[in-house]
Write a structure and sequence with these properties.
The structure holds two protein chains of two kinds. Helices cover about 45% and strands about 15% of the residues of chain A. Chain A is of the alpha/beta class. In chain A, strand 8, helix 11 and strand 9 form a beta-alpha-beta unit. Chain A is elongated and about 70 Å long. The relative contact order of chain A is 0.13. By secondary structure, chain B is an all-alpha fold. Chain B has one domain. Chain B is built from 15 helices and two strands. In chain B, a hairpin with a 2-residue loop joins strand 1 and strand 2. The radius of gyration of chain B is 22 Å and the shape is globular. Classes of the chains: A alpha/beta, B mainly alpha. At the A-B interface, strand 2, helix 6, helix 7 and helix 9 of A face helix 2, helix 4, helix 6 and helix 13 of B. Chain A: Keywords: Signal. Chain A: InterPro entries: ABC_urea-bd_UrtA (IPR017777), Leu_Ile_Val-bd (IPR000709), Peripla_BP_I (IPR028082), TAT_signal (IPR006311). Chain A: It comes from Azospirillum oleiclasticum. Chain A: This is Urea ABC transporter substrate-binding protein. Chain B: It is a multi-pass membrane protein.
């Protein structure tokens, strides 16, 4: 895969600029120094042998475009390509066009490790935008630390990790959980909770944090159950829910299991308009598979919804649909993936260098005001300050944003008192 | 088939010599460390493929669960490396320092009993071979004594692979769950992540593989090897001749499992982690495909088959990240349709006669060895 399309587009843009430039020729001739200053010498901004030339810089995109995870990760790939194209149209990074090398992680953790090594060692890319599951991130992390690469990781995840070589553009667990629970305590008067999850590290860690927060506030966890990934029989837990009658079902069911879970809830006569259900694992992407009518009435706790009403988001949704088709759906992670190239560009420009060490050091404090989710900022711990929002699922597959925190939530990957 | 100077013991040793030249000299001189490390990873699968040639090709036992043994060997190695990486110094931010990080995340406060012995390198290395063979022994005795074979055996091995995956994923506090055991750093203080270490490990791996191939050749040349072929072709006749068929089958199944375990351990050392994605049904079937592409009757063919399939996988997926699976599918279908005996069959029918003719021009024809080749 090459970045031909983007190059073609930027060629067109270039031609347009050249035509404009001819008109402005007399003016341009008067300020050659300024033009020179915009593109600093390669030797000065790339001291560690990354793939940076006088006119281009190479980055990597590493997601699964084949295998079970491709459904989830395709949105991230599309968002990253969109961001790269937009950045190139604005003149690139430090005067250099971004060229991307895409590799397929194939939903297979060792393949992720192999491809990340290829991107860092052979292609010497200046940054990698990629990974989705925690397992793939865990597989590539030692590679990024060993070869000193920079990874922008988009997915909301369980926390318990922090690395110089990773910028986490999704939320860690406390950012997704605490504010959402506080909201149901207050708005719904909820006192008992039933925790359900797929059986792996993210749902388990998230539910652990949720349980501590619920118990700290003096409320009760009525039950906690886990099911293997891909599980499709939820009748036993649904019966238990009917018996225990919790105020809130707290669901962290992942992937294809969601379809079975929500359909069986509905079939069992649990009406989500009466029974409060809160999830942190269903975005617009998952809604496509579940079917809006099966989940309408549930509350999702995210930082981004496609329906967010702000100018940044409107422009983003429009550009995304223009590039990838009017039917495209944009979920929380897709938006977080879109932030990656932008945050990297801003960081490189602040550092005045592509060098990984300087980019890592310059990252804390980087602000991105153009984010579709609204203002975000990188914390010292390389996670993002972002707001928590609550969306009410509608039958048309979108969410109504009904609540957002007043302040940005601080990322806290190692939460004291929740471990 | 007419006798050729390339069959028989001498021919096989010549083949091993050529392979040794390739993996010990040609590849290290022509590839950079990154590509060489990839070849090293492919060669760890070749351990399994070689075991499958013995098990499936020679003895007719098709196992669709070799990933189990590859994974067990890999996990044994990974447990030792993880314990070494989890010293109290490196894990001091945890609630319980000194235990692997994933245990801490799962509220474990002490090391489970079955992890304790993996503090010892000697124990771990022994376990790499013994744990897979022990499980293979149990499966073998349970199945072969009851005369379960053929498709039923293949399905049962597949089921065991699925069960083991679910077990590992479900018990994440003890096994690392779906993430596997990651972030392995040193072996007795020796950093396995550096380029030098990768080079050393590559050569250790290649030498071990060659050793295993020689071992398998010896098995095939022995009386045992000929009994295996006999029971593949006519099991009842061997049984009526007074042999206890189940014992022979169990032995070869255990041997294949032990080889797979060694491969898994070398994989962990070279790649730096182990996860349940090597244990399940899909990787197990992939391992059979390597063997089929290479030619299930030929030990050397299996190695070349593994190298070819993995090389194709890597290069197709680098060039066409969205379409490469189709190319792989086409490769498999092509090989099975056109060359049912795989690369080795191709070599036998097309290359060997030519080489013989070349040689025949210079020398008078030599009467071939009278011993029957295992094929």
């Amino acid at each position: 895969m090459s970045s031909d399309d983007i190059r073609k587009d930027s060629h067109d843009a270039l031609r347009r600029k050249l035509l404009l430039g001819m008109a402005a020729l007399p003016a341009a001739a008067m300020m050659p120094r300024l033009a020179f200053a915009q593109a600093p010498a390669t030797a000065a901004i790339n001291t560690t042998g990354l793939a940076v030339t006088d006119s281009t810089v190479k980055v990597g995109i590493l997601h699964s475009v084949t295998g079970t995870m491709s459904i989830s990760e395709t949105g991230s790939v599309e968002a990253e390509k969109l961001a790269i194209q937009q950045i190139n149209e604005m003149g690139g990074v430090l005067g250099r066009k971004i060229e991307f090398i895409q590799e397929d992680g194939a939903s297979d953790w060792p393949t992720f490790a192999e491809k990340s090594r290829k991107l860092l060692v052979n292609d010497k890319v200046a940054a990698v935008f990629g990974c989705w599951t925690s397992a793939s991130r865990k597989a590539v992390l030692p590679v990024f630390e060993q070869y000193n690469g920079m990874l922008y990781y988009p997915t909301f995840y369980e926390g318990l990790e922090q690395s110089k070589n990773v910028i986490y553009t999704g939320q860690e667990a406390t950012q997704q959980i605490l504010a959402g629970l506080d909201w149901v305590f207050k708005e719904k008067g909820a006192k008992s909770f039933y925790l359900i999850g797929s059986d792996y590290i993210w749902p388990r860690t998230s539910n652990k944090i949720a349980r501590k927060h619920i118990e700290k506030n003096g409320f009760k966890v009525a039950g906690e159950e886990y099911f293997p990934l891909g599980h499709t029989q939820f009748n036993s837990v649904i019966n238990k829910i009917k018996l225990t009658k919790p105020d809130v079902i707290y669901a962290i069911v992942v992937g294809g299991s969601n379809v079975a879970f929500y359909k069986q809830l509905k079939a069992a006569g649990i009406d989500l308009k009466k029974q409060t259900l809160m999830t942190i694992s269903v975005t617009e992407d998952e809604m496509l598979g579940i079917g809006g009518e099966n989940i309408a009435g549930a509350y999702a706790c995210m930082k981004y919804f496609q329906s967010l009403d702000n100018p940044n988001n409107k422009a983003f949704v429009e550009a995304f649909k223009k590039m990838w088709g009017a039917d495209s759906v944009i979920g929380d992670v897709t938006q977080a993936a879109y932030l990656g190239p932008w945050l990297w560009k801003l960081t490189v420009e602040k550092a005045g260098s592509f060098d990984i060490d300087k980019v890592a050091a310059a990252s804390p404090g980087i602000e991105f005001k153009g984010a579709p989710e609204g203002y975000v900022r990188i914390h010292e711990n390389h996670h993002l300050w972002s707001k928590t929002r609550i969306g009410l699922a509608k039958a048309d597959g979108q969410f109504d944003v009904i609540h957002e925190t007043a302040e940005l939530m601080e990322p806290d990957p190692f939460p004291k008192g929740y471990q | 088939m007419t006798r050729s100077f390339l069959t028989g013991t001498r021919g096989e040793l010549l083949g091993v010599g050529v392979l040794a030249l390739l993996v010990l000299l040609v590849l290290p001189l022509s590839l950079d460390v990154f590509r060489l490390n990839l070849v090293g990873k492919y060669l760890t699968y070749a351990f399994v493929a070689v075991g499958l040639v013995l098990c499936w090709g020679s003895a007719g036992i098709l196992s669709l669960g070799q990933g189990i043994f590859f994974g067990l060997g890999g996990y044994c190695m990974a447990m030792f490396l993880k314990l070494e990486a989890s010293n109290p110094e490196a894990t001091k931010i945890q609630s319980t320092p000194g235990i692997p990080d994933f245990m801490d995340w799962n509220q474990l406060t002490s090391l489970p009993w079955f992890w304790e012995p993996f503090h010892s390198l000697t124990f771990s290395l022994a376990a790499v071979v013994l744990v897979p063979s022990a499980l293979a022994f149990v499966i073998g005795v349970a199945m072969f004594k009851r005369r379960v074979g053929g498709v039923y055996f293949a399905i049962i091995t597949q089921a065991i692979a699925a069960i083991l995956t679910i077990l590992i994923v479900g018990q994440q506090g003890y096994t690392g769950g779906i993430n596997g055991i990651t972030d392995l750093r040193t072996l007795k203080g020796w950093d396995i992540r550096t380029d030098e270490a990768k080079l050393v490990l590559y050569f250790v791996n290649a030498a071990l593989l060659l050793g295993c191939i020689l071992l398998c050749l010896a098995v095939r040349r022995s009386k045992l090897g000929r009994i295996l072929v006999a029971l593949r072709d006519k099991e009842d006749r061997v049984r009526f001749s007074g042999y206890d068929v189940a014992n022979f089958k169990t032995f070869v199944f255990c041997l294949a499992a032990a080889l797979a375990g060694v491969g898994g351990a070398m994989f962990t050392l070279q790649v730096g982690f182990m996860s349940p994605s090597f244990v399940g049904i899909v990787p197990s079937i992939e391992l059979v495909i390597y063997c089929a592409v290479g030619g299930r009757l030929s030990l050397l063919g299996a190695v070349y088959g593994t190298l070819l399939v993995n090389w194709a996988k890597t290069s197709f997926s680098e060039s066409f990240p969205e379409l490469w699976l189709f190319a792989m599918g086409a490769l498999f279908i092509g090989v099975v349709m056109a060359f049912p005996n795989g690369l080795a069959g191709l070599f036998q029918t097309h290359v060997v006669p030519r080489l013989d003719r070349l040689r025949g021009r210079g020398l008078p024809p030599v009467p071939g060895p009278t011993r029957m080749a295992a094929e």
